[in-house]
Amino acid sequence: RDTSPESASSDLGLADASAMDREDLCTDTHCLGLSLLNVALESGGDEIARSDELICVIQDDICKSLLQNSRTDSLSVLSLNLRAIFNLFLHFKRHLKVQLEIFFTSVHLKIAALDTASYEQREIALESLLEFCREPELMLELYENYDCDFRCTDLFQTLVKFLVTSSFPSDGVQGVRGGFNALHRLALSGLLSILHSMALRCEGHRHFRSEEAAKPEALTPVSSVETELQRKREQKRRLALAARTFNGEPSKSMSALQSLGLVSSPPTPESMAEFLRHTPALDLRVVGEYLAKRHDFNGQVRKAFMDLFPFTGLGVVEALRMLLSSFRLPGEAQLIERLVEDFAGAYYVKQPPVLDGLGGGGADSGAEGVKPQDPRKMQRWVPREKQPDETVDGANSSGSPGSGGGPEDAAGEAPLRVKMANSDTIFVLSYSIIMLNTDLHSAKVTKKMTDAEFIRNNRGIDDGKDVAPFFLRDVYEAIRDEEIRLHGDAPVEGGDIENVVDDFFWEGILRRSESIDEFSTTERLLSETPPGASERDMLQVIMDCAPMPTLSLCYESVPDVAVAAQAMVGFQDLAKLSAYFDQSESVNGLVRVMCQYFIKFSSGGVLSAKSQIALRAAQKCAMQHVLLLREAEWRVVLEVLLQLWALDLLPPHLTELDDFAGADGRPLKSLAELRPPFPRPDEVPHAQPGGGGAPGEAAPGAPLLEADVLRRQESTDGFLESLTRWFEDETRDDDEMENRALGNEDFRLHYLGSDAEAGDKEEDELPAASASPPVVHQAVKQYIAKSGFLDLFAAPGIAKLPAESWQTLAKALVMLSRPSRWTSAAFTSGAGSPASAPAGGPLESYVAAGSSVAAVWHEVADPVFGLELLTNMTCMPLGVGQSLSQIWPLVSTHFERLIQYVVGGGGSSEQQFIERLIVNTLRLCIRLIGNAELVPTLLGLIQHLAKLPPNLFATYSERIACGLLVLVKETNLPHSGLCAIFALLKRISEFPANAGACNAGIECLNHWLSDDVELSRLLTLQQFPELLTTLKAFASQNSTPASATALGHLSSLVPQLARGARNVPQAQGQWQSLWAPTLHVLADIAKDGSQRSSAQAFVYLQRLLLERGTELSLPWEEVEFSVWKESLEQVLFPLLQAQQDGQGATVAEADGARRASAAQLICRVVLTHMPDWLRSSPDGFPVLFLRLLHILVSESAAPSPSHEPLVESLKNLLLVISADPLFSELASPNQGETLLEGAWAVVSPIFPALRREIAFILDPSAAGEAGGAEATKDSAPAES
């Protein structure tokens, strides 16, 4: 429309409105027209698409008008204009491939990214883009039609890249240009709409289901269409790479072009010309310079390049237009001359020759002996620029060689072509046309050339003759009416909105639309077709645009919770897409990011809204993609679990550590009672909902309610919402608008993902819709319990893991379950690299260094929890495909190194961890000892426990003993296992002060000794000596219940076996082999034990050596003399002879009492069993008896506190044998004397008065007379 003052003054007085009113009227008219167009397209688009005539109108006039209207300043016109473009996309995209590309690049993306455009204009453009992004089929079609077509721009890539860069302000959320606003929100929504539609398709097919462990091979076979698209995409990639290479340095690009397969090897002019003619994105200036060079190869390429154009039947001006659209003329005259010369030759030879003239190459031109004529020197017919309307069909216009003559043959008709002599005419005329084009259309030329001047300037150019004036006049008018644009007549890839205002540009668009393929639509139903190669490539395009940093900035820096929720949904959708196409690297990176966000935003102990959003996303992704997790990602998932523990959000069954009960059945007091560092909000007085949140949130301690989020949304409602509501179809879904108020469920589905089931209760989702910290804490705890995340670490979840994932989790737990300060070199060769941590030092040093309470708690709790999970996982029932051998080497080596580190004196400050290390080592043994393949390793761990330093063993001895008690009760240990157990029990007995440990140790022995089957197995495995030494170790304690119990077992076991009171087949008839070792043990206790134990040992020795007629008496008749002799020689005699080391009256007194008891016992044994011995070995008894006397006499003669008791025992023994007539009859080993005489021969030299005293006791009267005479006789020498 014309709003100039001239037009305003020529309205003939019919309009009296002001200029503003007229402008408003024009705007309203435009709005009305666009509204009617939208109504027509929306209501009858499908019917209109069936009319070829209407399609032509839409392709040309309507699209051109829409492109021009997009430059308007009126928001109403722009809004309706963009709505009309969207409707064209929906109904006519098959016929508008080039037009729609121009709309996207020159309208939507141009306005949305234009800083000079108003805020409202950019918002309207972004809202229109959002509409496109919410069409899943359209996004797929954009990629297949544009990104896979080398003649088009990468429209999908361009769109995604724009959305990624526009989703967050470059200067931050508090930037000088307004920070994060509705424009960024719209761009983010568009990006997420693309991701979400793709993710929903992936999630809806079985290949995504984690339970079926989908692999890439499970995808649907690639169709022929997808194969063709991949071929096109690869071709486009190669052409783009070739174009960049050639544009950079043409002279050095040949090898690269050959390697890409675009130029033959060796290179030919024809292949190079094809490359220059048909490769998009080439720099037209570089192409022109390359073609104009004078090198031989360049000249050959130039000629081959000219031959590629279809010049036949074209006018000179039209041919020049076609040629100059493919390159830019260089500036030097010589270069231009070469190009024009070759053009003239190529153009001229493609025109029909004149057959009826002398120079026309008649029939004789090819006769024998006649030299062939140069095609460029032959007369030819050159068509004129304008063909008259009266042209008769078939009137020689085709210029075929068979035509009889020129257009002059038809009298009265305008000629259709002219005759020219040679190509030089075209050469000169082409130069003249280029000069004319510059003269007529250059702003620097003020005086324009006329047609007469142009005709005059071209006199005599046709081999000295003039070209027909009407021909030159046609040329002049063609140039005058339409300039030859030296930069190309249409944009090859997209276009610029500033160039879409004239007919020339639009004609180029139409010509280009005729040269490329039609827009191909997606015929398949996306909901029923699994994603394939196209979607995989689309995902790669998205990932190449780097959306993750943008999503991270939106989540971290934007205070709005709704934006954070959107960003987290974007992470989830990227993970779903990557998992579907088996891109495990991307999946793991996304899972790691989500988990770390939860840890970061909950590190202060407050469950902010952002931390809840991250928790929900992290848990779902971990569950969905558990099969793809690597060791590092398992580690961060475990850190989430530990953070939940720190926040007191885990159920008790996960945080209560398994432990042993004492011998009395009560739980042992643990050092590892770890309470979460962040108590529940209801335990904190005066809890403030607004404190302690993560940076970047307005009120981190008080999660925003949905109503708060919606109020923020309403404050940034789009302009298109309020401006064009009355133009929209009533059936359109409300949820397609980004900023329309949503209900609670719509809010969750839109911002938190649509994967939630319809039946989920509102309170089961996160973030919790409450500002009360106790309510939020309880809601999150309930969500965790119901989410299924914790099932990953329970037996059913572990059993579902394939072997590789199982091993990966085990490696992560191994790394987690080592305290970070244990920096011994023993760990550097283990699984994974050692974690960096401060070296050594007590736990308090961390606090002193400024570490937070939570950090200190994690230092202790993380390895404890990791070790607990590792033990639980190792002991769980195996799933399909799992074998304990897959993880056992890793687990056993880890436990062994940990224990060796402690045995070596390291980690003494980590008492909580050492306690759990011991408990879990025993738990492994209890659960796995039945596996024969693991027994050697398990026993090795038990043996390492026996080597713990004394201070540590004393601290944890009760746990070790209680664990051993469970082990011996629940398992049948092999021979080596029993040896290890006995070694530990002996070590436990070294700490009598720990009554609980000793009692539990004795209970282990009680279990074996009270059960006939267990006792029989001990004897079968030849473990009776170990049993005796273990009982001896406990019995040697001073006045403890354990020592009394051990002594009781020593005294009663052999008699029970001998009498057959126990059902132990191995002991029947062989009890004597057990009796002697038992005597040895009791004798050792009597000799080396405490005073009370020694006294008790003597009592039990008497029971084993003397008792008759009771349940505990032995069948002495079965004991041979040789056994008795051995027992006396090896057990009782040494007991009498040995002396304790040490000084002091107490020691001497105790030693005297022991030796006195030994002497009494020996004498009683000899006197009690003497009749049996004499019967069984009359020759051996005298020798044994005299041996006894020698020992008694020698021990009694030595000065000691036990002198008198020993003499008394000797006197009693001599008294008995002197009164027994048998001793007077038995022969002594010495020839010629009786045993009694031999006895006195041993005693009298040391105790001369003892015989007289014995005689007096036996016969006081006879002894008195003899004594008096003896005294008189003895006194005589003394007096003399």
3D architecture notes:
It is built from 54 helices and 2 strands. The protein has a two-stranded antiparallel ribbon with strand order 1-2. Mean pLDDT is 80; it is low at 1-16, 208-220, 358-367, 390-412, 488-501, 686-763, 829-851 and 1266-1280. Helix 8 (155-166) crosses helix 9, helix 35 runs parallel beside helix 37 (911-928) and helix 44 runs antiparallel to helix 45 (1072-1088). It is 60% helix and 1% strand. The longest helix is centred in the C-terminal third of the chain and has 32 residues, at 1145-1176. By secondary structure, it is mainly α.
In short:
By secondary structure, this protein is mainly α. The relative contact order is 0.04.
Write the layout of secondary structure elements.
Layout: H1 5-9, H2 19-48, H3 52-69, H4 75-92, H5 97-113, H6 119-133, H7 136-147, H8 155-166, H9 182-203, H10 224-248, H11 254-259, H12 269-278, H13 284-292, H14 296-307, H15 316-324, H16 333-349, E1 380-383, E2 417-420, H17 423-441, H18 451-457, H19 469-481, H20 503-515, H21 533-544, H22 547-557, H23 561-580, H24 584-601, H25 609-624, H26 631-646, H27 652-655, H28 706-715, H29 719-723, H30 744-751, H31 773-787, H32 795-799, H33 803-816, H34 843-848, H35 853-875, H36 888-903, H37 911-928, H38 935-945, H39 950-970, H40 975-989, H41 995-1010, H42 1012-1020, H43 1024-1035, H44 1041-1059, H45 1072-1088, H46 1091-1106, H47 1121-1137, H48 1145-1176, H49 1180-1197, H50 1203-1219, H51 1221-1225, H52 1235-1243, H53 1250-1258, H54 1260-1279
Antiparallel strand pairs: 1-2
